[in-house]
């Protein structure tokens, strides 16, 4: 699981992530040192005023590949985006707009971030709408979602509707608060996650990420022992 990073903000100058090619290279090297072989570049969409176009994201992905190649960093980079769940996403679906999807396990997928300061409604319906378009919804860091119950019945309903769940590794070491940390541990122990991501924004988060990789291995080894 740790060889692929499904959620990162390494694309320079696009959102609140990497501010320069130098930062992009530093984060990419850090991921490579941790054993990551593939990283999905997922700039914010419909958040921070971002309204990105598919071709724009593909061009920027290609440029990140060139930046890393010149720096000698052998890391596969793939196109993606982190969609904010809200009216803009609903309008895009209703209007049949092009979506910035990514390929995973033979499917076209869309990474979606739910609100972190208010409960999300219609989560199952949005999954159904995406599935009708042949797109698998992937939920970014559900452990950070507002009002997530610890008994996880709601999470199971989301999974039944088609959602796949992405763990923010940094949640495991308290980077996003104690509640997210506790939920991330419980959900990982229960086998509820389908993939992981660093959600890296800055090179100074790499020390946290190293700890998170160790925590992930410790938890999964204990569960499978």
Layout of strands and helices, then pairs:
Blueprint: E1 4-8, H1 21-33, E2 38-41, E3 44-45, H2 54-70, E4 76-79, E5 82-84, H3 87-94, E6 102-104, E7 107-113, H4 123-132, E8 135-140, H5 153-161, E9 164-168, H6 178-189, E10 195-197, H7 206-224
Parallel strand pairs: 1-2, 2-4, 3-5, 5-7, 7-8, 8-9, 9-10
Antiparallel strand pairs: 6-7
| Largest sheet descriptor | 7 strands, mixed
- In the CATH scheme, the class would be Alpha Beta
Head-to-tail CA distance between termini: 17 Å
Broad structural category: alpha/beta
CATH architecture descriptor:
Alpha-Beta Barrel
Mean of all residue-level pLDDT scores: 94
- Give the low-confidence spans: none
Total beta strand runs? 10
* Percentage of residues assigned to helices: 25-40%
Q: What is the H/E order?
A: EHEEHEEHEEHEHEHEH
The best one-word shape is: globular
Number of domains: 1
Q: State the helix count.
A: 7
Radius of gyration equals 17 Å
Q: Name the CATH homologous superfamily.
A: Metal-dependent hydrolases
Which topology does CATH recognise?
TIM Barrel
